[in-house]
Amino acid sequence: MGETHRPGRIEVVCGSMFSGKTEELIRRMKRAKFARQKVEIFKPAIDTRYSDVDVVSHDQNTIQSTPIDSSSTILLLASDIDVVGIDEAQFLDNGLVDVCNQLADRGVRVIVAGLDMDYKGVPFGPIPALCAIADEVTKVHAICVKCGALAYVSHRLVHNDKRVLLGEQTEYEPLCRECYQKALEKEKSEKQ
After folding, report:
1. Distance between CA atoms of 153 and 160, rounded to whole angstroms?
2. b/e per residue, 41-59, with b = 16+ CB within 10 A?
3. pLDDT band, very low/low/confident/very high, at 171 (cuts 50, 70, 90)
4. Long-range contacts of 103-106 (CB under 8 A, 24+ apart)
5. Which of 3, 88, 136, 178 is catalytic?
6. Which residues contact 62 (CB under 8 A, 6 or more apart)?
7. Distance between CA atoms of residues 91 and 71, nearest Å
8. What average pLDDT does this structure show over 95-108?
9. 116 and 125 Cβ atoms separated by less than 8 Å
10. CA nearest to 44, candidates 162, 119, 126
């Protein structure tokens, strides 16, 4: 016998921008490394905000990662891995749901971090479906920059209708539901 039992599972860390999703992913991955587990971290190749290769939190914590263009690449690169981390998963294709299920069924712990909603408050990419099949979902919150309540959404500050617009504090701000509605009303009245 002598083999260890590896229960596969899917963990999702989601919320608005500036809520600590990547920070939590890095924390969990570093703990797995400390426990001498084999880990591999992936991120969408389009996310080059802080680094072309590393996963970097807003607080500048980093961990080495592998940039990918398609979720199917994860299956090719994650053989003989105990823990797979995936950052900014909202930018990946919907095939990610099946990939995560396959990994978990193989006994791999899968930790996914990403935005659950876009700047319009609409469910974003594969994250909602991943939340549905996850063994554990952690919803983290930023603080509303207007009133200090828990943030609900990442409000876009620049005029651009593209759904995917990589950005930071100059392009986005975390707002609670009430302050978000006020911001939308203000934007609407300015257009008239």
Report:
1. 17
2. bbbbeebeeeeeebbbbbe
3. confident
4. 103/8, 103/74, 103/75, 103/78, 104/8, 104/9, 104/10, 104/135, 105/8, 106/8
5. 88
6. 26, 50, 51, 54, 55, 56
7. 10
8. 97
9. no
10. 126
pLDDT at 2: 38
Nearest to 85 by CA among 76, 98, 74, 93: 74
**Among residues 119, 102, 105, which one has the least CA distance to residue 156?**
119
Q: What DSSP element (H or E) covers 75?
A: helix 72-77
H or E element that contains 179? helix 177-191
Total residues belonging to the chain: 192
User: Which is more confidently placed, 73 or 58?
Assistant: 73
Looking at residue 181, its amino acid is Q
- Asked if 100 contacts 92 with a C-beta cutoff of 8 angstroms, the reply is no
88 is catalytic: yes
The CA distance from 2 to 19, in Å, is 42
121-160 burial, b for 16+ CB within 10 Å, e for fewer?
A: beebbbbbebbeebeebbebbbebebeeebbbbbbbeeee
pLDDT at residue 169, rounded to an integer = 59
Q: How far apart are CA 186 and CA 152, in angstroms?
A: 18
β-strand 153-156 against 172-175: which pairing, if any?
antiparallel
- Which pLDDT tens digit goes with each residue over 75-85? 999 889 999 99
